[in-house]
Amino acid sequence: xxxxxxxxxxxxxxxxxxxxxxxxxxxxxxxxxxxxxxxxxxxxxxxxxxxxxxxxxxxxxxxxxxxxxxxxxxxxxxxxxxxxxxxxxxxxxxxxxxxxxxxxxxxxxxxxxxxxxxxxxxxxxxxxxxxxxxxxxxxxxxxxxxxxxxxxxxxxxxxxxxxxxxxxxxxxxxxxxxxxxxxxxxxxxxxxxxxxxxxxxxxxxxxxxxxxxxxxxxxxxxxxxxxxxxxxxxxxxxxxxxxxxxxxxxxxxxxxxxxxxxxxxxxxxxxxxxxxxxxxxxxxxxxxxxxxxxxxxxxxxxxxx
Length: 305
Prior knowledge:
The chain has helices at 13-25, 39-46, 61-66, 85-90, 103-118, 142-153, 167-172, 181-187, 207-211, 230-239, 254-261, 277-297, and strands at 2-7, 29-34, 51-54, 72-75, 94-97, 135-138, 158-161, 176-177, 190-193, 218-221, 244-247, 265-267. With 305 residues, it is α/β, with parallel strands linked by helices. The strands form 2 sheets. It has a 7-stranded parallel β-sheet, sandwiched between helices. A 5-stranded parallel β-sheet has the order 2-1-3-4-5, with helices on both faces. α5 packs across α6. The protein is elongated, with a radius of gyration of 21 Å.
């Protein structure tokens, strides 16, 4: 049985070696497709693959149809909207993610961007401090909990909204639970988004929520681009010149936003929440272990379809 890593943006060499070791020690065949330049290359390589490890690679119905032997796809990371779940389910293919493996990396990026912003991009002028500011977390999964942990070190009170998280989890983490996104945006000086891309969340962050933020508020998005209602966000940020937007997923109107908003808008050159050596290795090894567990023992703990 062949386990294929297919990544346009490669894992680190250490991660690849670790994945290979796990796969081969389990008696499976290891295969690697890195930096591929065409979909045709991917279609050819998946044809005889039993298992597939990907990062942000698009695994659509065409890819799944070409993979005649495929039994499992693991996305090395938390989000999995790059995989066609309906097509996978129709073909009886198990899809998993690796929740928590990138969580600390994303959480640290949140604070890197916040410090950059509140200290005026380190331009030498007086800035402000995070201590004492209320941090609001929209979703309280693995990333949100890591953000809350770091926030406490800065002396930030933390509130969070998550309709699917048990009340005892908020209490155990010393975080105040609020009853709605509307309450979250009203109560926080900084709101950090950690919601997945779903039919319910796409375009949900717009004028009503952002416009209700406190004076001087900062919105941070390390989740997904499509949860933002871009036209409404641009409108409210032009009207509320005290607000700022920080993200590692540039708006589709990035050039226009930079021109209209100036230093109140910051986007990293590419999505980089999980771009650390540690997260790269953690997610890759977790994906390999999950594949071995599934093929050998039928373990489906992190199945998402």
